[in-house]
Amino acid sequence: MALFSxxxxxxxxxxxxxxARDFFAPLLERSTGTTFSVRDVFSGEDKSKFAxxxxxxxxxxxxxxxxxxxxxxxxxxxxxxxxxxxxxxxxKNLG
Length: 95
What we know:
The protein is 11% helix and 57% strand. By secondary structure, the chain is mainly beta. The chain has a six-stranded mixed beta sheet. The model has no long low-confidence stretch (mean pLDDT 89).
């Protein structure tokens, strides 16, 4: 949480818009067996924003592993703290 500003928000396809604190507390509780492998980091002209492409790997209770690509878009303030995180993923082919 030290990376986030006090009023940081997270936009999640599954949880909606929440404060970073309200989003990450339950996420950490249910993230056992989850790994993230960064594939690339992107920046553009606006140096306050970065996108990270990574693989999300989750081992399910039945022992099967699901892997799918995700993109997180980070917005930073002048102090280098994250003010906004937008999570983008598509799980339609995980069936």
